[in-house]
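Researcher: I'd like a candidate sequence for this fold, 451 residues long. If you have to choose between options at a position, lean toward the conservative one.
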């Protein structure tokens, strides 16, 4: 096919492509399309495959021309993007043609489309970038705290002998809200509600009010809530609640000894074995978290210093993906999720708007990483992947063969390769920028949500 093409860059990584196809190719495409109609058309009075061309053109002229144009556009796209990579449309960016061209067998055919392309960004500005590395030392207290959490997870829940409610007891209650006359407000009743006293995990925050109550005791509680209470339904109001304690239980904690270690995992013979393994796992988690924080800090600064726009279709695809993931979490369909959100007084559009800022930053970070990997020609060797298998096996307490089996799926293997490339990129960059000591913090603080 003989054609000419012209690309024009637009805002937000959009492109306008103008293509001109020679009149000879236009005539040939029209002739080919007409021939297909001739072979397949069935018109009363004519045998199949013997309908005269002029009859077909009178009856199906517009359709024949439209099909011929479609064939020409498809063929020209295939030819243009067989070699053209930088200006290739994004997978989720359907080229838009504002005006369909008219076919004239005596003239060249020209059409114009607009679509989004992968953003081109040259990350050159590393000036002034400083990454801080958190200083964390795993102490005996950290290990003991982890063991305490394991002790609580392995605790037996038993009835409390005296049946008197105290902090940290697990209680089962029936409750309802009362009106000014002391009558139950319909719809406020709740039976067999279970929570831990002191956790605040109940609507009316009545933890302190039920302390001292006994099993099967009923009590009317009057509570006045502050105007700035986090629960808008309670803020500034006074509520009267009827509470009946149905059960009071305590956690029977196992002794922390060699038997406890063996019960937690058969690979442990002694408590010392468990402590040593816990420290090793905590060191791995610590190093992984610190590196994650360093990488995030680096990317935030690179995004800020290297400005570029995200294509509208790329951002929309990301937001749609997040919406589908949210639907999966709620075990429903995206369409049903839309109705659920609307029923709660919100809208899908408002939620997507809230997500936009974070989604743009995440996409820009991803684009910067991809661009730097290509620019620096970062690749991984089979030997480096084998080293990754060994590292994962050691950190996870598995055999190398078990790890390889996990990554046997091509998509999983590709993920590991991409992850290895990224880590090589970060290692290169950290040699080029300033990495300084960050704040000292405990192991627990390291994993607390960052402000």
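Model: Candidate sequence:
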């Amino acid at each position: 096919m003989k054609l000419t093409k012209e690309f024009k860059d637009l805002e937000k990584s959009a492109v306008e492509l103008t293509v001109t196809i020679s009149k000879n190719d236009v005539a040939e495409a029209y002739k080919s399309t007409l021939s297909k109609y001739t072979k397949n058309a069935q018109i009363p009075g004519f045998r199949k495959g013997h309908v005269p061309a002029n009859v077909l053109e009178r009856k199906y002229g517009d359709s024949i021309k439209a099909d011929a144009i479609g064939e020409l556009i498809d063929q020209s796209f295939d030819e243009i993007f067989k070699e053209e990579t930088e200006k290739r449309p994004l997978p989720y960016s359907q080229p838009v043609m504002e005006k369909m061209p008219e076919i004239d067998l005596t003239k060249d055919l020209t059409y114009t489309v607009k679509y989004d392309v992968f953003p081109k960004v040259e990350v050159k500005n590393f000036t002034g970038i400083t990454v801080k590395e958190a200083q964390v030392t795993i102490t005996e207290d950290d290990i003991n705290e982890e063991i305490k959490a394991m002790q609580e997870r392995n605790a037996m829940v038993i009835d409390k002998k005296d049946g008197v409610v105290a902090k940290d007891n697990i209680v089962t209650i029936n409750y309802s809200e009362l009106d000014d006359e002391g009558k139950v407000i319909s719809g406020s009743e709740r039976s067999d509600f279970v929570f831990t006293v002191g956790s605040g995990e109940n609507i009316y925050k009545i933890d302190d009010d039920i302390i001292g109550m006994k099993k099967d005791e009923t009590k009317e509680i009057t509570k006045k809530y502050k105007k700035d209470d986090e629960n808008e339904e309670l803020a500034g109001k006074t509520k009267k609640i009827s509470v009946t304690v149905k059960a009071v239980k305590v956690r029977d904690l196992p002794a922390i000894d060699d038997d406890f270690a063996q019960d937690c995992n058969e690979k442990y013979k002694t408590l010392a074995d468990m402590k040593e393994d816990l420290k090793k796992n905590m060191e791995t988690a610590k190093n992984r978290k610190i590196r994650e924080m360093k990488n995030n800090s680096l990317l935030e600064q690179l995004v800020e210093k290297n400005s570029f726009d995200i294509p509208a279709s790329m951002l929309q695809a990301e937001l749609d993906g997040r919406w589908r993931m949210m639907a999966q979490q709620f075990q429903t369909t995206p369409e049903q999720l839309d109705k659920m959100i609307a029923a709660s007084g919100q809208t899908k559009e408002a939620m997507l708007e809230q997500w936009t800022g974070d989604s743009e930053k995440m996409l820009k970070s991803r684009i910067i990483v991809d661009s730097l990997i290509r620019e620096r020609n970062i690749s991984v060797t089979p030997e480096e992947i084998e080293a990754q298998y060994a590292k994962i096996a050691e950190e996870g307490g598995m055999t190398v063969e078990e790890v390889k089996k996990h990554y046997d799926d091509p998509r999983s293997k590709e993920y590991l390769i991409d992850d290895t490339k990224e880590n090589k990129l970060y290692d290169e960059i950290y040699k080029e920028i300033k990495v300084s000591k960050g704040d000292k913090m405990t192991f627990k603080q390291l994993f607390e949500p960052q402000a």
